[in-house]
Write a structure and sequence with these properties.
Helix content is about 35%, strand content about 15%. It has 9 helices and 8 strands. An 8-stranded parallel sheet has the order 1-2-3-4-5-6-7-8.
């Protein structure tokens, strides 16, 4: 069983995605039925939808659209990691509304698409602290050179459960390991962080990567975070840039083939069930 903790859906008839024009390979619809057909064949039994950086005025609409999809019998979607803007004064009210909806499991604000100073602002930090003790997680998507800022944010709110997306976004194609490794070691020292095994194929050379290309990165996060603090995600449709969903699932099984059944179960489903009460 696999629980996909990082599914993106793109439906341009319902939502606006300002960033898509800059990524031609993804500038089209990626709808639920297309995903679900392949996901079921790959052994994916449940999924969490991850926000797709829609227009800021459509954040609630995105959650509503995904929730409506999930209400249909037999759907894979079990919840949403919603978009948020902690830098806005209105975040407190937004947090209260999302807390009242059990479908919302957490928040994400991608940090590498905004100025570094954003996460250092007083309002942003106050609002992250406001999440302390809540059931909502906060996904962090940042580049290796931003890890000092990430660490400051994590240390600011030790009672917030953070999730480090895409193994910390290693620059696999360039082979620049040292800065990434140092960041992973430091982040993993914080007990309130879980690492998401997702997205890494998109950071490798699309034409030449194979299982062994990715293995050092997966082994590094496993060694640092341990089996109880890893979750799995597809990053569909971004994973289509590195081979596609079926390729990533097959690669996942190959990467973890040497681990025990109990260890694989934790990464593939059990940790996600516990973390998001699925």
């Amino acid at each position: 069983m696999l629980i996909d903790t990082h599914l993106h859906l793109i439906d341009r008839s319902k939502l606006t995605y300002p960033w898509l024009s800059g990524v031609p390979a993804l500038d089209r619809d990626f709808l639920y039925n297309t995903y679900a057909s392949e996901a079921r064949r790959c052994g994916i039994d449940a999924a969490l939808h991850m926000e797709v950086d829609v227009d800021a005025g459509e954040m609630q609409r995105e959650t509503d659209v995904v929730k409506e999809l999930s209400d249909t019998s037999g759907q894979l979607i079990r919840g949403a990691i919603a978009a948020c803007r902690p830098e806005d004064e209105g975040f407190a009210g937004y947090l209260e509304r999302q807390m009242a909806d059990p479908f919302v499991k957490g928040f994400r604000r991608v940090l590498h698409v905004v100025p570094d100073e954003l996460s250092e602002g007083a309002v942003f930090r106050e609002h992250i602290r406001r999440m302390s003790g809540s059931r909502l997680t906060f996904d962090i998507c940042a580049l290796p050179h931003q890890m000092s800022r990430v660490l400051a944010l994590i240390d600011l709110a030790p009672e917030v459960q953070f999730v480090l997306d895409h193994c910390g976004v290693p620059a696999i194609s360039s082979g620049a390991l040292d800065v990434w490794k140092d960041g992973i070691r430091e982040v993993a020292k914080r007990p309130n962080v879980v690492c998401k095994v997702s997205g890494v194929a998109a950071y490798a050379d699309a034409e030449t990567w194979d299982v062994e290309t990715l293995r050092p990165y997966i082994e590094q996060v496993t060694a640092n975070f341990g089996w109880d603090r890893l979750v799995w995600g597809s990053d569909w449709p971004v994973c289509t840039l590195g081979g596609g969903l079926s390729t990533w699932v097959a690669t996942t099984h190959a990467l973890f083939a040497g681990s025990s059944e109990a260890e694989r179960t934790k990464v593939f489903s059990a940790n996600a069930k516990r973390l998001w009460n699925l």
